[in-house]
Amino acid sequence: xxxxxxVERHDDHAxxxxxxxxxxxxSDGFKETxxxxxxxxxxxxxxxxxxxxxxDTAGISGVAVYQKRLKERGGELKIINVTHDYIKHLxxxxxxxxIVEIQEV
Length: 105
Fold this sequence. Notes:
There is one protein chain. The chain is built from three helices and seven strands; from the N terminus they run E-E-E-H-E-E-H-E-H-E. The chain starts with 5 loop residues before the first strand and ends with a strand. By secondary structure, the chain is α/β, with parallel strands linked by helices. The chain has a single domain (2-103), classed as STAS domain (Transcription Regulator spoIIAA, 2-Layer Sandwich), CATH 3.30.750. Helix content is 36%, strand content 24%. It is globular and about 35 Å long.
C-alpha cells in the first residue's frame, strides 16, 4: 500500500506526494510512509497535496501523530499545494493550520 505514496528525499527534508484519496482503506500506507521517513531520520516531512481530493480522519490522525513526534525531536510536518476546494474547506474547518504549517499555493 505504501506504493501509492511517492517520496522524494532531500538533504534537509522529505516530500510525500499524496494520492487523490487518503482515507481508511489506504491509511496504513500513509502511516507506513511517514514512519519510514521518520525512522530514516528526516526531521522535516512535507505533504504535497496537489492531487489530494479526499482526506478523512485516518489521514488527519496521521498528521497529528507525526507532527507531535517530529516536534519532539526538533522537526516538523508541513503541508503544501492544497489546490482542491474541498480539501481547503476541510483543513480550514478543522483548523489544521493550528497543528501544522500549511503553505498556500
